[in-house]
Automatic annotation (TrEMBL), chain A:
This is ABC transporter permease. It is a multi-pass membrane protein. It comes from the Bacteria. Coiled coil: none annotated. Signal peptide: none annotated. The keyword Kinase does not apply. The chain crosses the membrane at residues 26-43, 49-69, 76-95, 101-123, 130-148, 186-204, 234-253, 273-304, 316-335. It comes from Roseivivax halodurans JCM 10272. One of its GO terms (cellular component) is plasma membrane.
UniProtKB/TrEMBL annotation, chain B:
Pfam families: BPD_transp_2 (PF02653). The chain crosses the membrane at residues 23-44, 51-71, 77-99, 108-129, 164-184, 205-229, 249-271, 283-303. Coiled coil: none annotated. GO terms for cellular component: plasma membrane. Belongs to the binding-protein-dependent transport system permease family. LivHM subfamily. GO terms for molecular function: transmembrane transporter activity. Keywords: Amino-acid transport, Cell membrane, Membrane, Transmembrane, Transmembrane helix, Transport. It is a multi-pass membrane protein. It comes from Roseivivax halodurans JCM 10272. It is found in: Cell membrane. This is ABC transporter permease. GO terms for biological process: amino acid transport.
Amino acid sequence: MLYRTAGQFKTSYQADQALFPVRQDAILLGVILIFAWVVLPMTASEFAFQTMLIPVLIYALAAMGLNILTGYAGQLSLGTGAFMGVGAYACYKMVTLMPWMNPVVAILLAGVFSAGVGVAFGIPSLRIKGFYLAIATLAAQFFLVWLFEKWAWLYNYNASGAIQVPNLDMFGLWVSGPQAASVTQYYLVLGVVTLMTLLCINLTRGNLGRTWKATRDMDIAAELIGINLMKSKLTAFAISSYVVGVAGAMYVFMWKGAAEPNVFDIPLSFQVLFIAIIGGLGSILGNFLGAILIVGLPVALNLLPNALGIPISSATVEHLNVMIVGALIIFFLIIEPHGLARLWALIREKLIVWPFPY
Amino acid sequence: MIYDVFVAPFADMIEAPDFLMQVLWEGLVSGILYALIALGFVLIYRSSRIFNFAQGIMVVFAALTLVGLHAAGLPAWIAVAATLVVMFVLAVTVERVVLRPLVGQPDIILFMATIGITLFLIGFGEIIFGGENKVMITEELGIPTGDFVFEPFGGLLILQQLDVTVVIVAALLVCALLAFLNFTRMGRAIRALGDDHQAALSVGISLQTIWVLVWFIAGIIALVTGIAWGARAGVSFALEVIAYKALPVLMLGGLESITGAIVGGLMIGVLEKVFEIYWGQPLLGGNTETWFAFVLALIVLLFRPQGLFGERIIERV
């Protein structure tokens, strides 16, 4: 009853292809946006900001970048962590070389650098496919992390070898560094993520998105119907790396506050890949659902023994965490290989006819 | 600059040939271990098209189980047998719980599932055996630990007997495996599945049995690799990084080829060592071993997209 689509007639193609052809979808999204923009910032605690809200948004953005490449254009990549690193280091260099720069502009520009690196490492995809390409992207992963460690210019010749986020202000408010308030950072991250999401949704719905999907489904057939594979694959690499780079810059500037090269090592790549796959490849919504699950799960598992009063050492909890995450990944893949987004699609279909079976 | 890159390293090599031989030998031994891990990958990939990311952690898990069982009081060789039983149980469990429900899913889903297995085994292993570094029971297994010392060109060349044993055992293992695949009924069934799933099923080959068998063989290879690598570097989860080294080996050799895994492993083992010693440390600040193999494989792949020995990729619309 709540989700009835009957009676919502479309009289033009434009109306039919609108972003929300079903009214309830738009209302639901509106409610979620109000929650994210108004209710959560007013009610959340410092702990919630730092362990859930900000990381979920950042991981979701990184997964969205990966999803464009893997889910829409069909090019499996295992180098996401390193591309996030490129964004973070580029942002760091920019704000330290040009301290007058607006931090948000720096974050958005940092993505351009990782897009460039992404295209360079995407060139092999024109000849290499499937798992061979996945391993080829590992070359980017290992090489870039090594570079972050050895190229002292990147971290301004720090003795520690890590990048430390300076205090940056925008219109009189501290937005990064130790003095920044979590709420400010949250709003900034939310703003960028909302913008990027809108951009990604429209890109994947448009002409470019359709060429990506054709390339994913069968690249030879795509070539035969006149799609320029080089353009399609390289734009996918560029846009994907741009989004991932922005996520990486925010990962360090808006959340971690400091980062060593090994932060961007392969576990980060896998974490983002888990989010994209468990959320659902080829879906924008899935990235958010996956991020909530993957970020929220360890937090919940850490809190649970305390809440129940079971005495467990923190090392054991850590190992149990890894084990349970592994088991859950398998579990989710078995119950729904197409991810949480598909699960939501099924629920929505049921809701449309509810309370009748069909 | 040009002199440093193109002349000086070769001059060093000619100046100290005994050192060069030592470097080549070390590279060869690590190459053999890479090849063994890659072999486990290839076997599973050939028979099921599953890119088994868990092979590396199976090496660690096998080695940990062996050391753990010995510490619990079992004699060395009985511990080996018991470890084999554990690996068999693991193979059956993986097939039952993970692979069977996922038959027919896209490759990437199965790949993710093996990453799930990896995480599970890491957590499980750390809870049961603890995360600290352990010593492999080399002497109890009767593996010699002395050195062979040669003096070629008036220099000094030290071959550890352990490494020599590893080379011999690995060679025997590969021969046994090839014989098994080529001359037994089960082996032919594995190859048939690799060629064409549906055709193999239609002549009555059981997918489940073969998958368990293949994962068990991969487990045996993992145990051998684990003993060999553990004896050189100790047993801990840090061993997992060598699993990543097997990936460029696969790329270089081709995902389906056993020959490719062996040749690729040896090539990468030797070349990365030589590059690290003669170019990496003097010019690039060292530690190039983390990425050299991948970049090398990437360059080779640009010219041969299916690897050196892989099956030619034929695509039809």
